[in-house]
Amino acid sequence: MGPEVVRRLRAQLRPADARPPRAPVLLILDAGPAPENQTGPLRRFAPDLVILVDAARMEVSPGVVRWLAWEETTGLSGSTHTLPPATLATYLTAELGCEVALLGIQPTAVEFEASLSPAAEQAVHDVVAGLAQILQV
């Protein structure tokens, strides 16, 4: 689900040369199944905020989107990633001194590369639209 959000968000945001002066500088990464492998690019970028967007089994209806307290995600199930979000977020906050926010989307299925259900497709659309609006200056 994260890669689809990244692809669509990149397409909606204006290119850097079209942004007005003082616009926030963004780094949008598709972290894939091993987001810890993106710590090098993040370290070079030196972010103030990292927003992680991914499927999260929250025991709610498919397509539900929630901001999650990453500190409470040590047992979050449904991830196809090698590390739980809390481990990555702890590292990022300690090593990079940035804030971390976690946006979870309840999937219908969590198998690696499973196609998006209609509910998840709508949630991705809504997340992209919301983030694009917030991040667009």
Secondary structure layout plus pairing:
Elements: H1 2-12, H2 39-45, E1 49-55, E2 65-68, H3 85-96, E3 99-105, H4 118-135
Parallel strand pairs: 1-3
Antiparallel strand pairs: 2-3
Describe the structure.
The chain is α+β, with helices and mostly antiparallel strands and 137 residues long. The chain has a domain at 44-137: 3-Layer(aba) Sandwich (Rossmann fold). Helix content is 35%, strand content 13%. The protein contains four helices and three strands. A three-stranded mixed β-sheet has the order 1-3-2, with helices on both faces. It starts with a helix and ends with a helix. The model has no long low-confidence stretch (mean pLDDT 82).
Quick summary:
By secondary structure, the chain is of the alpha+beta class.
Pick out its properties.
single chain, 137 residues, alpha+beta, Rossmann fold, three-stranded mixed beta sheet, 4 helices, 13% strand, globular
Order of strands across the biggest sheet? 1-3-2
The secondary structure category is alpha+beta
Strand content: 5-15%
CATH class of the domain at 44-137: Alpha Beta
Average of the residue pLDDT scores:
82
Q: Assign an overall shape.
A: globular
Would you report the number of β strands?
A: 3
Q: How is the biggest beta sheet arranged?
A: 3 strands, mixed
Helicity level:
25-40%
Number of helices: 4
CATH topology of the domain at 44-137: Rossmann fold
Architecture of the domain at 44-137, CATH level 2? 3-Layer(aba) Sandwich
**From the alpha-carbon coordinates, what is the Rg to the nearest angstrom?**
15 Å
The ordered string of helix (H) and strand (E) elements is: HHEEHEH
Runs with pLDDT <50, length 5+? none
CATH fourth-tier homologous superfamily of the domain at 44-137 = HybD-like
Our measurement of the CA-to-CA distance between the termini, rounded to an integer number of angstroms, reads: 25 Å
